[in-house]
Design a protein that fits this description.
By secondary structure, the protein is an alpha+beta fold. Helices cover 25% and strands 38% of the residues. The protein folds into four domains: 112 residues, conserved putative lor/sdh protein from methanococcus maripaludis s2 fold, CATH 2.40.420.20; 93 residues, Elongation Factor Tu (Ef-tu), domain 3; 60 residues, RNA polymerase II/Efflux pump adaptor protein, barrel-sandwich hybrid domain (OB fold (Dihydrolipoamide Acetyltransferase, E2P), Beta Barrel), CATH 2.40.50.100; 75 residues, Orthogonal Bundle (Helix Hairpins), CATH 1.10.287.470. The protein is built from four helices and 22 strands. α2 packs antiparallel against α3.
Length: 374
């Protein structure tokens, strides 16, 4: 079986140490600079965009009373999860019930008056044909009937208004969500359209809004129509904690010219309640997976005056300076577009002691001038 480049280097270092130890009367070779190394490799690597975002509710509703009166009942506790249609508040309904009853009575009275006016009109129609009444009397009966119809229509509108006000006295949740702080206590007077009684935030599901640099816009336009996964962790959470997984749901239709960024939103089911409105979160958006990315540890890349480079360890144990072209940085690894081949060994620690052609000593391998054991 073929050994790895790193294993071969360790073998060469051990052999050099053995030869130096066995040599009689030969001056010991100067020790190489101690370094840590890793092997460049090709692997599938997601193309990810990182950002900082803010969690926000899908919907926010400020509950305001549509009628005035005494707040006679609060049917929930602050911070409760409420469902759409659940009773929240009760404004004293008795004044509105009285108005409805009065309106119904007036409606019944005017219905009777209209019935009498229409009966008179029918009699006058027959009498005017026989000239028993004048045309003027007939027109007066007709006008009276039309006036009673208009009055009855207004009565029906008053009844409907009174019925609506009675319904508005019972305040129910328009959406499901988490109730906030109670702003008006039971027993207080409330006004129609006055201050909010409570605010409800829908947090199942929840949204996370974040902005990314406009340089990513071409890739967002290319892959944005697909279901792109988004992982977030609260800013206070440990990096090893399990992230919340959601999907990209919105890409803004314009770039913010002040910041040079574009606004995105992701939707999360948030069944466990890990995300909270207003919370800062760390966002990772995965656009696609690059199947054969050439990666090295990010610690291997050195920024020089002529651009980035790495130290490649040659089989004979010397370091070679190699300029590289960086594709992108993905966490603790860097994707290289050019400069290194898969399988080559690069220095990840100890570059400050190196220059082009310098001898290296792998940390953990015996030094070339180490004394031989008896």
């Amino acid at each position: 079986m073929t050994s790895s480049p790193l294993a071969r280097l360790l073998t060469i270092a051990a052999a050099a140490a053995a030869l130096a130890a066995c040599g009689k009367g030969t001056a010991a070779a100067p020790p190489g600079a101690p370094v840590t190394v890793a092997t460049a490799e090709r692997k599938a690597l997601p193309y990810e965009i990182t950002a900082t975002g803010t969690a926000e509710p899908v919907q926010t509703v400020a509950i305001v009373s549509q009628v005035g009166g005494l707040l006679s009942k609060v049917a929930f506790k602050e911070g409760d999860d409420v469902t759409a249609g659940q009773l929240l508040f009760q404004v004293d309904p008795r004044p509105y019930q009285a108005v409805l009853d009065q309106s119904l009575g007036i409606l019944a009275r005017d219905q009777a008056q209209l019935a009498n006016a229409e009966a008179d009109l029918k009699r006058y129609e027959a009498l005017v044909a026989k000239e028993y009444v004048t045309a003027q009397q007939y027109e007066q009966a007709k006008t009276a009937a039309e006036a009673d119809r208009a009055t009855l229509a207004a009565d029906r509108a008053n009844v409907e208004t009174a019925r609506l006000n009675l319904q508005f006295a019972t305040i129910r949740a328009p959406i499901s969500g988490r109730a906030g702080s109670l702003l008006v206590k039971e027993g207080n007077l409330v006004k129609a359209g006055g201050q909010p009684l409570v605010t409800i935030n829908q947090i199942h599901p929840i949204l996370v809004r974040f902005a990314v640099p406009v340089v990513h816009l071409p890739l967002l336009r290319k892959y944005g129509n697909a279901a792109l996964p988004v992982d977030v962790r609260p800013g206070s959470a440990s990096s090893v904690s399990e992230p919340s997984r959601g999907m990209l749901s919105f890409v803004d239709n314009a770039v913010d010219t002040l910041t040079g960024t574009i606004l995105l939103k992701a939707r999360f089911e948030n069944k466990d309640g890990a995300l909270w409105p207003g919370e800062f979160v760390n966002v990772v958006l995965a656009l696609f997976t690059q199947g054969d990315a050439l990666v090295v540890p990010s610690s291997a890349v050195v920024q020089g005056q002529q651009g980035p480079f790495v130290f490649v360890v040659k089989p004979e144990g010397t370091a070679e300076t190699r300029p590289v072209v960086i594709g992108r940085v993905a966490g603790d690894v860097t994707v290289l577009d050019r400069g290194v081949e898969a399988g080559e060994v690069v220095v990840t620690d100890g570059q400050l002691r190196l220059n082009n052609g310098a001898r290296v000593q792998l940390k953990g391998a015996p030094a070339a001038n180490a004394p031989a054991k008896e």
